[in-house]
Amino acid sequence: MSIHIIPVNKLSAKALQGVIEEFISRNGTDYGAVEASLETMFRQVKSKLKDGSVVLVFDDETETTNIFLADDPILKKLR
Fold first, then answer.
1. pLDDT at residue 74 in the model
2. Any idea what the CATH number is for the domain that residue 40 is in?
3. CB-facing half-sphere around the CA of 5: CA atoms within 13 A
4. H or E segment and range at residue 17
5. Of 31, 36, 45, 59, which residue is most buried, by most CB within 10 angstroms?
6. CA atoms within 13 A on the CB side of 6
7. Is the pTM of this model over 0.70?
């Protein structure tokens, strides 16, 4: 598996914004029973990236980024 954790402080503010916006705009992203605004979802994801509860990953094979829970079993293989 060719997945790499990307430290969010290595991205420009604009690049990080683009990654987060793309992530929250995907179909199937579930934020619970209450519908939240895009701005609220953006702030929540950014906050979780900054506090380390979620991490940004890049997959070399598919050349895509994603956001995983920091304790996701897939990521344990990387550490």
1. 83
2. 1.10.10.610
3. 17
4. helix 13-25
5. 45
6. 18
7. yes
- Domain boundaries, position 49: 3-76
Split into its structural domains, the chain has a count of 1
pLDDT of residue 36: 77
Polymer length in residues for the chain: 79
The encoded tokens of residue 37 equal 């605004």
Q: According to the model, what pLDDT value does residue 29 have?
A: 52
- DSSP three-state, residue 66: strand
Between CA 76 and CA 79, with CA 77 as vertex, the angle to 5 degrees is 65
Which of 30, 28, 78, 73 has its CA nearest to residue 58?
A: 78
> How many CB atoms neighbour CB 19 within 10 A?
21
**59 backbone dihedrals φ, ψ, rounded to 5°:** -105, 115
